[in-house]
C-alpha cells in the first residue's frame, strides 16, 4: 500500500515538474519576445525624440504621440561623458531628494540591457546613450514560473506529509489491533493454566514444579498485559528505575549462557524515581537485552549504564557483539525490518513507539562498530 502511494506521489511530482518546466521555457520565450519589442519601442522613442529637435521636421504630431505612449519603460539618457542629461518613467521625487538615486538607477539599467546609442549626424563627437529597463509585465512573466514552482513544491510537500501521516495512522491502528487480538487470544489459555497451577498446589510433592510453572504463567500473563496496553495510553506511575532495570537484567541473566557477563552502572545512585509504565518499560529493556545477547553468539559483556542529569535520565545498553552495519543503521527501527532468520522485525519498532509516544522520550543508537558492539540509548524526561 505504501509503495503504491509512493509511486503515485512520484508520478504526481514528475507531472508537476514537467508542467512547471514547460511553463518556464514558454515564459522565457514570451519574455524574450517582450524584451525585443521593448527595445524596438525604445529605439522608436529615441528616433521620435531626436526628430523633435530637427528643425526641418514639418510635422511633430507623430513623434509626440510616440513619446507620450511610453509610460512604463524607464529610460535614462547620458551624453558622451556618460553623464545623466535626462530621464523618463523614473521617480522624480526621489531623483530630486536623493542625489544617489539616479546614479544607482543608471547602474541598474546598465546591468539589464545594452544601451541604444545615438550619434549626432552633424557632429560625431556628440554621442547620446539611452539606458532602459523592463516593464512590469516582463518582470511578472519572468518571475511567475518561479512562484508557480514554489507553490507546486509546497503543495507536493503538503500532500506527501498528509499521505504519510494517514499511512502511519493506519499502520498504528493495525499494530494496536494485532496486539490487542494477541492479548485476547492469550487470555483464555493463561487463565486456564492459572487454574491448573492452583489445583496442583494441593497435590503433595509438586512444590518445585508448581513454583516454576507459576513463574512461567506469570510471565505469560505479563506478556498478555503488555500487548493489551499497546494502542491505548498507559498509566505512568512513579517507579524506581534502578530497581526496574536490575529486575530485568536478573531475569535475562538467569536465562543467558554463563560466558555472558552483565554489569549495571548506577554511579553511586541507589534509587532513581521517575514516571514510567512498568510493564512496557520492562518490555523495552528486555528487547534490548535480548538483541544484545543475539549479537554476541553466547559470549561477551552487556553493560547497562544509568545516568541522571538535570532534566533527563539516560539508560545506555551496550554489548560487545558483532555490531550493526552502516547500511542497516537507518532501518533497524522500521517495522518489519530484521536481519534474523526468525521474527517479524517488530521488536525495536515497538520499543521506539513505547519510549517516544508513551514516555515522551527518545530511543536511538549512539554507536555501533563492526566486531566491537552496539550501544542503544534511552532518554527519559527527569521528574522534578
Biggest sheet overview = 5 strands, mixed
What are the secondary-structure elements, in order, as H or E?
HHEEHHEEHHEHEEHEEHHEE
What share of residues are in beta strands? 15-25%
Can you say what the CATH homologous superfamily of the largest domain is? Histidine kinase-like ATPase, C-terminal domain
CATH topology of the largest domain: Heat Shock Protein 90
> Residue share in helices?
55-70%
Strands side by side in the biggest sheet: 6-8-9-11-10
Number of strands: 11
Summed over residues and divided by their number, the pLDDT gives a mean of: 79
Structural class: alpha+beta
N-to-C span: 44 Å
Gross CATH architecture of the largest domain: 2-Layer Sandwich
Low-pLDDT stretches are none
- Number of spatially distinct domains: 2
Count of helical segments?
10
Radius of gyration: 39 Å
What is the CATH C level class of the largest domain, in words? Alpha Beta
Shape verdict: elongated
Description:
There is one protein chain. The protein is an alpha+beta fold and 384 residues long. It has two domains: 2-140, no CATH class; 234-381, Histidine kinase-like ATPase, C-terminal domain (Heat Shock Protein 90, 2-Layer Sandwich). Helix content is 56%, strand content 17%. It has helices spanning 2-52, 61-69, 92-97, 101-112, 136-201, 207-229, 241-254, 278-296, 326-329, 347-358, and strands spanning 75-78, 84-88, 116-119, 127-132, 237-240, 260-265, 273-276, 300-308, 312-319, 362-369, 373-381. A hairpin with a 7-residue loop joins β3 and β4 (127-132). The longest helix is centred in the middle third of the chain and has 66 residues, at 136-201. The radius of gyration is 39 Å and the shape is elongated. The model has no long low-confidence stretch (mean pLDDT 79).
Amino acid at each position: 500500500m505504501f509503495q503504491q502511494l509512493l509511486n503515485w506521489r512520484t508520478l504526481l511530482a514528475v507531472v508537476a515538474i514537467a508542467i512547471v518546466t514547460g511553463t518556464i521555457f514558454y515564459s522565457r520565450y514570451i519574455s524574450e519576445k517582450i524584451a525585443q519589442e521593448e527595445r524596438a519601442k525604445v529605439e522608436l522613442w529615441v528616433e521620435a525624440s531626436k526628430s523633435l529637435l530637427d528643425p526641418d521636421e514639418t510635422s511633430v504630431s507623430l513623434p509626440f504621440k510616440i513619446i507620450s505612449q511610453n509610460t512604463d519603460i524607464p529610460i535614462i539618457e547620458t551624453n558622451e561623458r556618460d553623464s545623466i542629461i535626462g530621464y523618463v518613467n523614473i521617480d522624480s521625487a526621489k531623483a530630486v531628494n536623493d542625489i544617489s538615486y539616479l546614479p544607482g538607477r543608471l547602474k541598474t539599467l546598465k546591468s539589464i540591457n545594452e544601451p541604444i546609442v545615438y550619434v549626432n549626424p552633424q557632429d560625431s563627437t556628440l554621442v547620446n546613450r539611452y539606458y532602459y529597463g523592463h516593464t512590469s509585465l516582463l518582470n511578472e512573466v519572468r518571475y511567475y514560473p518561479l512562484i508557480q514552482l514554489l507553490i507546486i513544491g509546497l503543495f507536493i510537500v503538503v500532500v506527501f506529509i498528509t499521505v504519510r501521516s494517514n499511512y502511519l495512522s493506519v499502520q498504528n491502528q493495525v499494530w494496536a489491533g494485532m496486539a490487542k487480538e494477541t492479548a485476547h487470544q492469550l487470555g483464555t489459555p493463561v487463565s486456564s493454566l492459572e487454574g491448573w497451577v492452583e489445583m496442583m498446589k494441593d497435590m503433595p510433592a509438586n512444590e518445585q514444579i508448581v513454583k516454576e510453572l507459576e513463574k512461567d504463567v506469570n510471565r505469560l500473563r505479563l506478556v498478555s498485559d503488555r500487548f493489551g496496553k499497546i494502542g491505548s495510553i498507559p498509566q505512568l506511575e512513579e517507579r524506581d528505575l534502578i530497581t526496574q532495570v536490575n529486575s530485568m537484567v536478573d531475569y535475562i541473566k538467569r536465562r543467558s549462557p554463563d560466558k555472558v557477563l552483565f554489569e549495571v552502572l548506577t554511579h553511586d545512585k541507589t534509587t532513581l524515581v521517575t514516571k514510567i509504565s512498568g510493564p512496557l518499560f520492562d518490555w523495552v529493556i528486555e528487547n534490548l537485552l535480548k538483541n544484545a545477547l543475539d549479537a554476541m553468539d553466547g559470549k561477551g559483556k552487556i553493560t547497562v549504564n544509568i545516568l541522571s542529569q538535570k532534566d533527563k535520565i539516560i539508560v545506555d545498553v551496550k554489548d560487545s557483539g558483532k555490531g550493526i552495519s552502516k547500511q542497516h543503521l537507518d532501518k533497524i527501527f522500521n517495522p518489519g525490518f530484521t536481519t534474523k532468520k526468525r521474527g517479524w522485525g517488530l521488536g525495536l519498532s515497538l520499543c521506539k513507539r513505547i519510549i517516544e509516544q508513551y514516555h515522551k522520550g527518545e530511543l536511538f543508537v549512539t554507536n555501533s562498530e563492526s566486531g566491537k558492539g552496539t550501544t542503544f540509548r534511552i532518554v527519559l524526561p527527569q521528574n522534578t
